[in-house]
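User: I'm new to structure prediction. If I give you an amino acid sequence, what do you actually give back? Let's try with this one:
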Amino acid sequence: SYKFMRYLSVFLLVTAIIAYGANWNYPEPDANRDVRDISFYQGPERDEPAIVETSQKPVNVIFMIGDGMGFNQVSLARYRSLGADGHLHMETLPVTGILRTHSASSSVTDSAAAGTALATGNKTNNKMLGLLPSGKSLMSILEAAEKEGFSTGLVATSAITHATPASFASHVESRYMNDIIAYQ
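Assistant: Good question. You get back a string of structure tokens that encode the predicted 3D arrangement of the chain. For your 184 residues, that looks like this:
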């Protein structure tokens, strides 16, 4: 759909900028441009995974989430932008994570339960943020990093109170408790 392709294009662009820097000419905004045109996207110059120098300690960690994105969505983006044999920038990154995203209450998850699993390593019920199904509060990776004295932040293309980013900083029974989520 249009909305999906728009969000996927933003995710791919942000991934490319973070991984390789903005070294291509991105088109100027044009009201007459077809929003489905992704001809601006250029795949990586090489298809091999990036080499990681293991003797160096990481300076920054950026945890990026393509909300609602799985293997099928990545394949669609690859086919649409580069063809079946192409590789997206994110497919050349040296580390990739895969997880099962079903919630504690359903085989079909929502963003709150999936985000909590990503943020804390624990499954919870749909609609819950940062809590176990019992209601016990969970420490997110963002909170653990802050506790260790690291600088942290959340960046989102959605509202910061949306379930996925909120799962890293909130502890509420319902993802719809926007005022409390914003306060936390």
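You can read the tokens as a compact description of the fold. Here is one thing that stands out. Helices lie at 2-20, 71-82, 111-120, 141-147, 163-166, 178-183.
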